[in-house]
Amino acid sequence: MNIIKRPLGLYKANCYVLVKEGKSLIIDPGFHSKHIIEMVGDSEPIAVLLTHGHCDHVSALDEVCEHYNIPAYLHPLDQELLQLIRRRPSVYKKKMYTNCNDLVTGKLQLGPFEVIVHHTPGHSAGSVCFEIEGHLFSGDTVFKQNVGNTDNYNSNPEDLITSLKYILTLSKDLIIDPGHKESTTLKDEEEFIKNIVG
Ligand SMILES: [Zn+2]
Ligand SMILES: [Zn+2]
Prior knowledge:
Blueprint: E1 2-8, E2 13-20, E3 23-27, H1 33-40, E4 44-49, H2 55-58, H3 61-68, E5 72-74, E6 101-102, E7 106-110, E8 113-119, E9 128-132, E10 135-139, E11 142-143, E12 146-147, H4 157-167, E13 175-178, E14 184-185, H5 186-197
Helix pairs in contact: 4-5
The structure holds zinc ion (2 copies).
InterPro entries: MBL_Glyoxalase_II, Metallo-B-lactamas, RibonucZ/Hydroxyglut_hydro
Cofactor: Zn(2+)
GO molecular function: hydrolase activity; metal ion binding
């Protein structure tokens, strides 16, 4: 599996394109569909996965899904965020019309990709982490030496603590590919996360 990563938009949210056997998955099409189409190249995209519903991770969703005629997946508890235009900075003022499929916890097979969906609420109610071939695409739940903020609409700090404790139970060999900034490993973040959850 080849991973192409590019920070996009005002908030530099990481968009990931995973390529395997000529097929690709697009995680968090934040902004600038032109760049995402470049990342996809001549692979054949099969789906868009959203770690959560915040504008910096979804704003190119409609263009990308329309361009490739592919489905998108989002946790049901974040579906309403796609409609809350007034909660977005003016630069993101756009109506989202893509109907996302509901993500459920557990295995999701998409072409050659076996995705394990972990529901990790806190930063938002419908935040998830995607585990794919030893990588954990963690959205805004956990970063290198940081965790997601919980002062947004539908955030919950107690849920975030529960989710972080749950992440500590996953394989320490996982490479964490977060929604912002650089990648890390669960092994390297273990101490930091333990200090936060107490
Ligand atoms: Zn977010
Ligand atoms: Zn973000």
